[in-house]
Amino acid sequence: MAQHGHHHVASSQKALMLELKSLQDEPVEGFKITLVDESDLYNWEVAIFGPPNTHYEGGYFKARIKFPIDYPYSPPAFRFLTKMWHPNIYENGDVCISILHPPVDDPQSGELPSERWNPTQNVRTILLSVISLLNEPNTFSPANVDASVMYRKWRDSKGKDREYAEIIRKQVLATKADAERDGVKVPTTLAEYCVRTRAPPADEGSNFFYDDYYDDEDLDDDEEEGEDCCYDEDDSGTEDS
Questions:
Q1: φ and ψ at residue 37, rounded to 5 degrees
Q2: Structural domain boundaries, residue 63
Q3: What is each CA distance from 160 to 8, 23, 52, 150, 165, in whole angstroms?
Q4: What is the CATH number of the domain that holds 52?
Q5: Is residue 97 situated within a structural domain?
Q6: Exactly one of 96, 194, 229, 230 is catalytic; which is it?
Q7: 96: annotated active-site residue
Q8: Is residue 142 domain-resident?
Q9: Which pTM was predicted?
């Protein structure tokens, strides 16, 4: 291993630098990416805005991506720092998603090797997977069994059993304080959400504040119609696939 070490570091650093640059030049909707520490390419901080027309609308969720030294041959780990109640997120925030599992053959998991990590995956594909996972949990092998049971009740009752939805709305409201502290204005309409958030230049940091932080009204019925957007407006999970 030792003699390969330097080669891995050089090639993974190069790969990460290119990805970071690409994500800052052409961001993914609803995400802001920064390095936890300018000198360390292996730890990224992610801010995720909850997509409009979902339970997560108006939410501001923070996460970390930790890359292995042999990236992209091994997958990174994705961990939420914000408290998340979700069938595929462990209590400690770790996200359990097939694309982040190494491509070993494991018939127990119910995953095909093709659904797992391979070096053509990248941060962009991970972010998109995480967003679709938030809206369409996978209840096959849950990381949080209680959340999974509750989600299934919500889904099978076509939303009449509100418990799952209410917990998520509470968590979304709880993220407002974080957003205010970070001086971030969370998009609540598709038009705002679809503006790709460029990371601010390093010297600005988080000292820019917004006065017009939106009021605490209930955002549920504030549907924006007819905007053409990246985001699929399917009402996530109410119908069985």
A1: -145, 125
A2: 1-190
A3: 52, 39, 21, 12, 10
A4: 3.10.110.10
A5: yes
A6: 96
A7: yes
A8: yes
A9: 0.76
